[in-house]
Design a protein that fits this description.
- By secondary structure, the protein is an alpha+beta fold.
- The chain has 19 helices and 41 strands.
- The strands form 11 sheets. The protein has a 7-stranded mixed β-sheet. A 6-stranded mixed β-sheet has the order 3-2-4-6-5-10.
- Strand 35 and strand 36 form a beta hairpin.
- Helix 3 runs parallel beside helix 5.
- The chain is globular and about 95 Å long.
- It starts with 9 loop residues before the first helix and ends with a strand.
């Protein structure tokens, strides 16, 4: 807290000592001595809005230092009304000063002789002057580990936190809390501080926003060691290599498996492959001198190679399941050894994760010194650390891996739900995690959080504070956030909301040991539905209490309240909350759609889980659209060709043959654990209509003859069955983030894709990668002749290469692919990818086939 000299006088200290004397004479004596000394030596920086101080910085200071000095001036003025002049070193001011960074006066003071760890800082008072400095990388300069160090800036932000009581609660203007002070005095101080972890990264929090970057800088997030890691096999060993080197890819069921999507596996025991991966990694690092690490992490999911050489390295995890840790460690070490000889100052990173999370049953072998393991504790994703058994296992994992390396990374999604939702910070879990990360000397932290700042701001704040200092208490930090963010009385009500939700989630996780980190319909019913009445009551009480709060605090509370409105919509949509308009927080679907467009200036808040701000405009590639005659030999067998069943995001093109009303009916929107947004745009990307998609609610809009328009659906988890009326339509087979192509969901239909005469060869792949899912896919030429059957019963992925036939009737025109249920297995998700040389638009209605060509 700030020290105010007009209050903390020698007389007041003596009075406090007299009161304490009656219970502890020795303590009182110490207080008198300390108080007298403190009163005599405190440096009065500002009094009654005036200051005799200047801020000194070097003329050639790095931008991080210059920015910090500017902010120091601005925040002091906002707090006290005093604007301290900025002076460029080497000039020495006549009055007293705050020296920021590597200045002439700082060097002359002798204080800079002591070494400070990267990103650390020193704050010291000497002769009435204040010095703040630390190691700073110059602009475009990197540390030996290809990171940056903003030590001085970290010292400035700590100075503002500790002595001016400034807090950066949320990004942007809304987030800063700056108490108004009449006077400020700095005690005699000489402190050196550095982060507990040299690499601190918080992801999925809208880091592309400038205001979020600024918030991260204020909260002292940063990386003096740059560690990059990702599922990288699909980039290092792409599917295009399969034709030449099938032996480099996983053997499944006795056959080398065609790579499809981004989750296939490679044959890590093949020496030629190991050399190829090492050579590719060396070249990557040589081409990217700014990179300290290159990732060797496996693609996600299972489907490990079943070759004899691989199976020798199979193991059992402590739960009796398959562990491929010995297989992966051999691969990591084999590649690292080759890379280390060529580039001894660089490293390779790799996940310790999922099927290779647990140490080998025979113990962890020696690891190459240039291997940087990143422990991705998939067993703790979500709120699983509420389980005592998971806590024990988590601790044992870090103890085991930490004992084998001095370079250990940590990746996790603690206190997180896939799909968003209301995610309380769970201080109990955070107080478990962070001291242990420091205990086991973890170097790199990469934590995924939520971008819905209106409800996850407190969690993001706690993560950032604890990444710098894991000794802090998460409960105390959370309490401070609520009170500072929303006001003393309203903040306590909000705190009760979070604490109640937190307790309900803890109970939910311990009741069902199978829950991981996906926000399921069961969560909506058993947690959100049960808790909602209590949450609404407390929020309305907080609104009433906010009359005593500041306008900024009320604005933050209103932002938080928008998430309560969304929560009500979710539980109402699942039938666990009455569909009543009597609630003050009730919003219609139309109102919610408008709410989701909302944007806080300078902030870019996401209100809905996994959904960004709807753009007023989009950019579409110009296309030529032709409506061709009814197909002569349609292989339909389908009574409703205007119905389409799919999963995840989609784009639909409409081409009206007359001025008409187009109707889009969501027959089914399943697993709706997130808000499903849609937008309708004209050919130039101008938004015509936007809203929320709900089962049975018909979306209507009018358009003109031959005017192309688009329906864009934004979702990451929802499954759809939609019916279209009013115009011919086509579905875009765009590659989704998982690179799986067009995705049918359980209910399939024939799809038609156009092959031009100029194309002499194309391929198509079909994949059903989930365990137990199969499909039988019949392929027909334009004449209606069955050309091939692609079955995924024995292998999860199949590929068919078509070469131009002599007969024009069996080549140019619409081909048909009809996914069906196979003789064995179940029909689930069917993923279809077309050769990029083909148009990626497909149709399902053979009566109105659209030929769509992109214009160059």
């Amino acid at each position: 807290m700030a020290f105010e000299p007009e209050k903390e006088t020698r007389k007041m200290f003596i009075k406090r000592a007299e009161r304490l004397m009656r219970s502890c004479p020795l303590a009182a004596l110490f207080l008198v001595q300390a108080g007298v000394s403190r009163a005599q030596q405190n440096t009065v920086l500002v009094s009654e809005g005036k200051s005799a101080y200047s801020i000194v910085r070097a003329a050639n200071a790095p931008s991080s230092v210059s920015k910090a000095a500017d902010e120091l001036q601005w925040y002091i003025e906002q707090s006290t009304g005093a604007k301290l002049p900025l002076v460029s070193s080497p000039a020495v001011p006549n009055n007293r000063y705050i020296s920021v960074g590597d200045t002439a006066v700082a060097r002359k003071s002798g204080l800079m002789d002591n070494a400070i760890p990267l990103e650390g800082f020193r704050i010291a008072t000497r002769g009435g002057n204040i010095f703040i400095f630390g190691p700073d990388t110059a602009d475009k300069e990197l540390t030996p580990q290809r990171g940056t160090s903003n030590g001085t800036a970290n010292g400035v932000y700590t100075f503002l936190e500790d002595y001016f009581n400034v807090r950066w609660l949320l990004p942007g203007e809304m987030g800063a809390d700056i108490p108004k002070l009449k006077a400020i005095a700095i005690p005699v101080v000489d402190r050196t501080e550095a982060p507990a972890f040299p690499s601190r990264t918080l992801t999925s929090v809208q880091t592309e926003k400038e205001s979020v970057k600024e918030w991260q800088r204020h909260l002292k997030l940063g990386n003096s060691i740059s560690v990059k890691h990702s599922h990288s096999w699909a980039q290092i060993v792409p599917p295009s290599l399969f034709a030449q080197h099938p032996e480099w890819f996983a053997e499944i069921g006795g056959k080398r498996t065609l790579p499809v999507g981004d989750r296939y596996k490679i044959e890590t025991t093949n020496p030629e492959l190991v050399q190829y991966v090492a050579d590719t990694t060396i070249k990557f690092l040589q081409d990217h001198p700014d990179r300290f690490t290159a990732s060797l992490s496996a693609t996600d999911s299972a489907n490990w190679s079943e070759s004899a050489a691989s199976k020798v390295l199979y193991d059992k995890d402590p739960r009796g399941g398959l562990s491929v840790t010995p297989l992966m460690l051999k691969f990591y070490n084999d590649v690292a050894k080759i890379v280390g000889k060529a580039l001894p100052d660089r490293m390779v990173a790799g996940y310790i994760y999922a099927d290779h999370l647990y140490p080998p049953s025979t113990g962890i072998p020696p690891l190459e010194p240039n291997f940087f393991p990143v422990l991705a504790t998939s067993n703790s994703y979500g709120y699983q650390l509420y389980r005592p058994s998971v806590q024990k296992e988590w601790d044992e994992l870090f103890q085991a891996w930490g004992a084998k390396t001095s370079n250990l990374g940590y990746y996790d999604l603690p206190n997180f739900f896939k799909g968003g939702y209301f995610t309380p910070p769970a201080p109990e879990i955070l107080n478990f995690i962070f001291p242990r990360l420091a205990k086991y000397n973890v170097k790199h932290l990469d934590i995924t959080s939520n971008s819905t700042w209106g409800q996850s701001g407190v969690k993001n704040y706690l993560f950032a504070r604890l990444m710098w200092n894991p000794k802090l208490d998460a409960n105390a930090l959370a309490h401070e956030f609520y009170v500072r963010a929303y006001g003393a009385e309203a903040g306590l009500k909000v705190e009760q909301i979070y604490q109640g939700m937190d307790a309900a989630i803890k109970q939910y996780y311990n009741k069902d040991q199978g829950i991981a980190y996906t926000a399921s319909p069961a969560f909506v019913r058993q947690v959100l539905g049960v808790q909602y009445p209590r949450v609404e009551k407390l929020y309305l009480e907080a609104e009433k209490a906010s009359a005593k709060a500041t306008p900024q605090q009320r604005a933050r509370l209103q932002l938080f309240g928008q998430h309560i409105m969304l929560m009500q919509w979710q539980v109402r949509d699942f039938g666990v909350y009455p569909n009543t308009t009597t609630s003050p927080l009730y919003r219609t679907n139309t109102q919610l759609a408008e709410l989701l467009k909302g944007d806080v200036p300078g902030f870019g808040i996401e209100n809905a889980p996994a959904v960004g701000i709807t753009k007023a405009e989009k950019v579409y590639a110009p296309v030529k659209v032709e409506l061709l005659p009814k197909l002569a030999n349609p292989q339909t067998g389908l009574t409703a060709p205007n119905v389409f069943s799919t999963i995840q995001a989609n784009r639909i093109l409409f081409y009206p043959t007359a001025d008409s009303e187009i109707q889009i009916k969501p027959v089914r929107v399943a697993n709706q654990v997130d808000i499903v947004r849609y937008g309708i745009y004209d050919a130039f990307g101008k938004n015509i209509q936007s809203g929320v998609m709900n089962t049975g609610e018909i979306i209507r809009f009018t358009t003109s003859e031959k005017q192309v328009c688009y329906l864009d659906i934004e979702s990451t988890t929802a499954r759809f069955e939609m019916e279209f009326r009013g115009a011919p339509f086509a579905i875009h087979n765009f590659t989704d983030p998982g690179k799986r192509g067009l995705r049918f969901d359980a209910k399939t239909s024939p799809i038609y894709f156009y092959v031009p005469a100029s194309l002499r060869e194309f391929y198509i792949t079909v994949n059903t990668s989930s365990p137990g899912e199969t499909s039988l896919n019949e392929l027909y030429s334009p004449s209606g002749k069955q050309v091939q059957t692609l079955a995924t019963e024995t292998t999860p992925a199949v590929k068919f290469n078509a070469i131009a036939d002599a007969s024009p009737g069996d080549w140019e025109g619409f081909w048909c692919l009809w996914p069906k249920k196979a003789a064995s297995g179940r029909l689930g998700t069917v993923n279809i990818k077309f050769d990029p040389a083909l148009s990626q638009w497909v149709v399902t209605d053979p009566n109105q086939p659209l030929k769509i060509s992109e214009l160059k």
